[in-house]
Specification:
InterPro entries: Lon_prtase_N, Lon_prtase_N_sf, PUA-like_sf, TPR-like_helical_dom_sf, Znf_RING, Znf_RING/FYVE/PHD, Znf_RING_CS. The protein has 18 helices and eleven strands. The protein is an alpha+beta fold and about 500 residues long. β1 and β2 form a beta hairpin. It starts with a helix and ends with a helix.
Length: about 500
């Protein structure tokens, strides 16, 4: 019939009359799911599993709840209560004694922690305070969780030599909950989870740790289950429950962890020291430079560029003795498209030139301390001479490109785009006119010659170099054409 509102009303009535009836909560969860009320769906599934932990159909359905995927499984593992989680006496005539065991404490805590609006309902079906026989003790009063020492703060009993945190009530009569830092350690970095992400196979890691592992292989680092779909979608949703528990009970440790992370990001975002270097091809200012990134070290490098917000990295050529070339070009990332195998296509464009002062390695890729290069400015008669040279070489470049065969033009245009227009002011850009870099990128030059021109800080010298190259290429083209014409005449 698909009358979900009516089904929800009926299920509510059943749950009010028989709060310990699993079927009622299950029907209510299904109705809520059809209505798209995900948070309430998860709550009702938790009720179902509390009352009947062997209900496999509910276990399967709870994993499909959007935004809360695997939250229940995380609770289940975290409190280490697989054998005693829901040992309930389900005799309706003895409701007042149903939760007089350790599992009542677990249920009271889990359901009360995230669904405080239902506190009165919880207290109506959990009339007895949780017992004290658990490995970890749970709150006797949910209000204590939020009101002690200000909002969201829980007093912690100081322990000199243990990383464990013990929560105490207002009266200090009995401990409420103890959390061990090791319960929230990432299995990869062995530090407190930061931005925890849970894989489809149920394992939780720091977001950055998981991404680095997936750079090398598309499998879960622990159970080796294939995670190709996760790689393709890049849908690394933060596990809300784990993050909230860490924030609530391990706030000091989380602050330290965040401070270390921020320091690392600040260091990576410096654009003159330890600049990430992609050793590959020749790049020029203002010219597009698409890249196919598949090596794990460069996957990490590109991701860090995006995370720091700089979206920039240097491009250098390899050098036989020095490792990387003396000069390079800074690139800015415009877009990153990731494929199911973890590789990606990076759309980047050159923005400025630099000289390498020193270089080293970091996590497999090169980094360098650099200084940026700008063209020397000229004035007076020298400027007038530069302007005349600029216009002349521009026209010479246009003529050369126009003389190319159509298929060659199409290849150049598809890769580098249209040739930029001539600037009215040749010194307006610190790196020089955009068209001059475009023509250098498309000319058939050896890398050694390209690198030498890239390092020039005199626009006049660079324009003269382009003129000489165009003259040589044009002569060769004319000689070749004359030879072809001569052969045709002889034939």
């Amino acid at each position: 019939m698909k009358n979900y509102e009516q089904a929800l009303q009926d299920a509510n009535a059943v749950c009010q009359n028989e709060p310990l009836l699993t079927k009622g909560h299950h029907v209510k969860a299904q109705a809520l799911s059809a209505l798209g009320r995900s948070k309430e769906v998860l709550k009702e599934f938790l009720y179902c599993l509390a009352l009947n932990p062997e209900c496999n159909s509910v276990k399967k359905e709870v994993q499909k709840v959007p935004l809360h995927e695997y939250c229940f499984l995380l609770c289940y593992d975290f409190f280490n209560i697989q054998d005693s989680f829901f040992l309930l006496d389900q005799n309706p005539s003895e409701k007042s004694d149903v939760f007089r065991n350790t599992s009542s404490s677990v249920l009271y805590f889990i359901l009360g922690l995230h669904f405080e609006e239902d506190k009165e309902v919880l207290e109506s079906i959990l009339p007895v305070a949780p017992s004290t026989g658990l490995k970890r003790q749970f709150p006797n009063d949910l209000e204590d969780v939020h009101d002690l020492n200000g909002p969201g703060k829980i007093p912690k009993k100081e322990v000199d030599s243990s990383p464990q945190r013990n929560m105490t009530s207002n009266t200090g009569e009995s401990p409420e909950l103890s959390i061990d830092v090791t319960d929230f350690e990432c299995a990869l970095c062995m530090r407190l989870l930061f931005e925890p992400v849970t894989t489809p196979c149920g394992h939780t890691f720091c977001l950055k740790c998981l991404e680095r592992c997936l750079d090398h292989a598309p499998h879960c680092p622990l159970c080796k289950e294939k995670l190709s779909e996760l790689l393709a979608s890049r849908n690394f949703n933060i596990t809300i429950l784990a993050e909230e528990l860490i924030f609530r009970y391990l706030s000091d440790e989380l602050s330290d962890r965040k401070r270390i992370y921020d320091e690392e990001m600040t260091e990576l975002s410096n654009l003159t020291r330890d600049v990430p270097i992609f050793v590959c091809a020749m790049a020029f200012p203002t010219v597009p430079c698409p890249l196919h990134v598949f090596e794990p070290r460069y996957r990490l490098m590109i991701r860090r560029c995006m995370e720091t917000g700089t979206k920039r990295f240097g491009m250098c050529l390899s050098a036989e003795h020095a490792g990387i070339s003396e000069y390079g070009c800074m690139l800015e990332i415009k877009d990153v498209r990731t494929f199911p195998d973890g590789s990606s296509v990076v759309d980047a464009i050159g923005i400025s030139r630099f000289r390498v002062l020193s270089h080293r390695h970091r996590d497999g890729y090169n980094t360098a301390d650099i200084e940026y290069l700008e063209d020397e400015k000229v004035e007076g008669p020298a400027y007038e001479e530069l302007t005349s040279l600029h216009d002349s070489v521009y026209q010479q470049s246009v003529s050369w490109f126009t003389s190319l065969q159509d298929h060659m033009k199409e290849q150049i245009l598809s890769h580098f785009g249209l040739m930029p227009d001539r600037e009215s002011e040749p010194q307006s850009n610190p790196s020089g006119p955009a068209w001059s870099w475009w023509i250098l990128a498309v000319l058939p030059l050896e890398r050694k010659a390209q690198l030498a021109i890239l390092g020039m800080i005199s626009l006049k010298e660079r324009l003269l170099a382009i003129r000489r190259i165009l003259v040589i290429i044009t002569r060769k083209m004319n000689s070749r054409q004359e030879l072809v014409n001569s052969r045709e005449r002889n034939n």
